[in-house]
Amino acid sequence: MGISKYPAVAVGFALILALLLAHPALADAPHAAAACEPDHQPKPVTDAWVAMKRDPNSLATQLGLVDALIDQGCYRNALPILQAGLAQRPRSTELQSRMRAVRSMLNEEQFFAGLGNAQETAKLQHNLLRCTKLADVSACDEALRSKPDDPQLMIAKGDALLHDSRPAEALLTYRHAADLFPDERAPEDQIIKQKLAAAESQRQALVSQCQGTADAAAVTACQAALLQGSSDESALLQRKGIVLQSLGKPEQALDAFIAAEPLNQDDKSVALAIVALTSSMGRKDALALGARGSALLTLGRPAEALPALQQAEALAPALPGIKAQLARAEHGAQEEAKRQGRLANARANAGAVKQPHGGEAAAAGAGAATSPPAPAYSNDASPGHTN
Amino acid sequence: MTGLRTAFVVIALLAITGCVSRAPTIAHVHIGHAITGVHVTPHQEGYLTTAERRAGQTVDFAQRAAASNALAEIKKDIAAAVKSADSEDDFGVKQAIVMAANHVTFAATSDDASLNVQRSAPAFAADITRVVERCDLIVLLAKDVEASGSAREASIPVEELVKLAQANVAGDDSNGDGVVGSAPSEYGLIQLRKELEAMIARESPSYVTVPQWYLFNLVRLPNGKWVFDKLGRGGNIDGYK
Prior knowledge:
The structure holds 2 protein chains of 2 kinds.
Chain A: H1 2-5, H2 7-28, H3 43-54, H4 59-71, H5 75-88, H6 93-134, H7 137-146, H8 151-163, H9 167-180, H10 187-212, H11 216-225, H12 233-246, H13 250-260, H14 268-281, H15 286-298, H16 302-315, H17 322-354, H18 359-369
Chain B: H1 2-17, H2 26-35, H3 47-67, H4 71-85, H5 93-109, H6 115-127, H7 129-147, H8 151-170, H9 189-201, H10 212-216, E1 218-220, E2 226-228
Antiparallel strand pairs in B: 1-2
């Protein structure tokens, strides 16, 4: 009752409100041109704003501002001015026709945005189709970029990987898909379990191929069966290194042994392979030097490990574990030096005791005349230690 | 005197019965461009009719490709299907339906547009999206066919392409509710025509088929106003198509 009693006041209030709202609306509009932003408006628009603030109820100033905004393509900003103006003058054909034009332009903007979206949607559907029907793993990845948490898509990628004989990657992907289903009792969970079993079965077949043969296919099988965190990870890497070495690919073999080494640091056969391959190839990158140092430590040769580790640290100070290994090597080298010193002293003392009986030279001469001492054999040597 | 009176009565009756016709509204002429005829289309048919004709051709070519075992033939038919679905020069389905939506939007922005047309036009423009998406997807699948090394390899994208082409005509049931075309996301051209016809049926005063002279002589003046070209040049002033 109160407001309807004073329609002019109400409409004036609405116009002022429209004026206040129009400015922030500029920044909100997703497709607003630069000219629609408050700080970048051209002079005709700012002049029209000034006139509008001076006389908000005049049709001429309303139309002036609306036209200035339309000229700049700021349709979203013209809308509240027109709405307020039409509330004041509902029969104004000038306001009505501008309102139609503004609404049309806004609809058109939406329409063209829709067409752009249609193209993106078609691309996504194409990738989904290639992923599910053609087992195209790269299409799965493209689609997952748009829908990263889509469990069905993740399952489809797992299927594509399995189809591509990459069961280890498929296992990881299915596990990820299972995490995306919140309910463990969901029917999809059962399906994923079956798929995990199928992937593990395919992986075991590849493990057998990796361990039972020694050709290029075996290398591929070792790689495809390799599953991070699995109990056979180290063994597969080691086997891959051995097969690669037998195929005359020392560089790749060394990479495989280097990858296996941190998984089983006490494995002397891996350590020996790394030492032999780094010696023969002379690789001097931080990773190879670090692995060589670590392998020499495993073999109980800290003094030899020290220079390799020092070089590795100089090349890559952030190499994981390098500082700890370096400290271990320094400590071991010192201990070895002390042991050597003690041994030398013990020998010297032993020589001094023998001196009254004809001296060291006499002992050597006597020794040469007698048969050499029998070599001491031991069963303590590591099984992998070969020449 | 009696003769003069008779002549007057006859003229009055003719006027009442419609022999003296009025020009259609500008809004209705734009709608006529969408459904009846326009001077720029191949057979001077309405844009929606062009879209329907081209969609039918897309299905025919795609089905012919699906029935073939010869890769060269498959590729040729699929290339023709793509041309029917998406061609700037020959009014593909995509171009024709976008033009139909544009003209319905023009209708809504005409000064004489009814509230019904003003309200229905944005919905129609939004509802053509699925048909446009399918056309875009047909183009992408055709590239897969083109890259195929065997008829067997091509068969999967061809099969999908046939489904899309058919859905562009009749709609699909992607939401699985058992009803084809139950939502705009499932629409084909059949549903879009129904939507447009429903809009026309709601018109008051009623929509009547627009005579060809009006359809071909609507022009836009530089000030944005729509008028009929009295010289009847069938013009295309200010880029209006």
